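User: Round two. Same drill as before: sequence, then structure, for each protein.

Assistant: Same drill it is. First protein:
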Amino acid sequence: MEKLIRNIISFAALLLIVFTVGCSTNSDSGTGTLEVKLHDAPVAFDEVNIFVERIEINKEDSEEGWIVVSEPNQSYNILELVNGEFEVLGITDLETGFYQQFRLIVSRDNNSVVIDGETHDLFIPSGAQTGVKLNINAEIEEDIRYVLLLDFDAKRSVVEAGQAAPLSFLLKPVIRATNEAITGNISGTVTPVDAQPAVYAIVGNDTLSTTFADEVTGEFKLIGLEEGTYTVSVEPQEGDYAEETIDGVEVLVGETTELDATIELTSGTE
């Protein structure tokens, strides 16, 4: 009898060990945090209003396994998101690992553009159901916050559909996604402010960040730039001013490179 009791106790202990190890294995992966920020490459409109229904992320390169990050169900005037201003679209905890795809679900009917004080509907020709997909290959690490920057290029995203009145516009979202942890910024000041200067960070033939200088102070910030050497180009939108360029601007990860001197635009007739 004593032998039987000892065997039963030993078996129960074995089951407890197996159960404990199994539970530990399931929790080994841990979780990290994903934060999604939206900012804009501007265009000379009064407003560009985008209604974001939800944002999702996926580990697989397929239509299966999408995870909802957040459901803002909110309209954003993306032209307000310049010079370092962001809108946080969502924050969530995710299992650790690599996530290959991200998508932004934009409303089909609640988007608009305002030009010279007149509001026009922005129509999405397709993609309202499947969303705007981006390949990101984001690594979520345990107890680490991964910040995904979405640069919504309004100038390339809003397309005039025809010349006949009334004007109509299509929304074909062009978005660049970057990991904030591997980027830096460029800041500076442009005068005169009445030139309404647009400022660009350029590598070769590629424009990688755009903003308008502040209409009061002339200050600007180009954000979300990967480490490297850039040309800063300043193009006046008003008045008879010449363009200016600054070559060889170095950007380092996690830092803001401040241009030493104010960029002074001169009259094109001088």
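Second protein:
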Amino acid sequence: MALSQDDRQAILDLPLQLTTLPAHQDIVREGDRPTRCCALLDGFAAMFKVTAEGKRQITAFYIPGDIPDLQSLHLEVLDTSLGTLSRCKVGFIQHEALQELCDRHPRIANAMWRETLIDAAIFRDWTANIGRREAYGRIAHILCELIVRLQAVGLTQDHVCKIPITQNEFADATGLSSVHVNRVLQALRADGLIVLRGNTLQVPDWEKLKKAGDFDPTYLHLQRKKAA
């Protein structure tokens, strides 16, 4: 989840190594021992695990303003991988610079701690989503989450936003096949809950989509105006 605007700016004032990465490229891999964190400035990314059989489970989506791998500041070895879903602009921040910032500004350290707690809340909600909702509700729930988070950082207008996530990626995030995801998206369209044109998502009936996904944004702990 994204830090507040002030906190994000304080971090972005640190020395950043800016780079643009293509879609579908690993940023860090499970087993890495990174010396820097990644601030996502533009584009979409995902955290994921890969089984011994090569099957991928996406455990979180990330949007502009997020710092997905804050845990690497304190965990020596990564137990998960992070990769781009779309073309991304990222800023790498050395751990030493981040640690010094936290030491000098306890409020920033508290904000980062809060973000890791929110990440844990999202992981819990995703576990419930995959384990206890039917396919229709799983997809509706994730779409609701993305819309609320994108609105919180000013990237939606009237429940219209860009979501460069493929059906295969939604499948990896929900434990469904890509064919099943396609059927669910068609059903959501037929029910008048969503309109999809390429990467553009429009939600004609926000309340019905929330109901379909059993969506309550409390777990996101947003401090800004939100779609709900």
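The radius of gyration is 17 Å.

User: Perfect.
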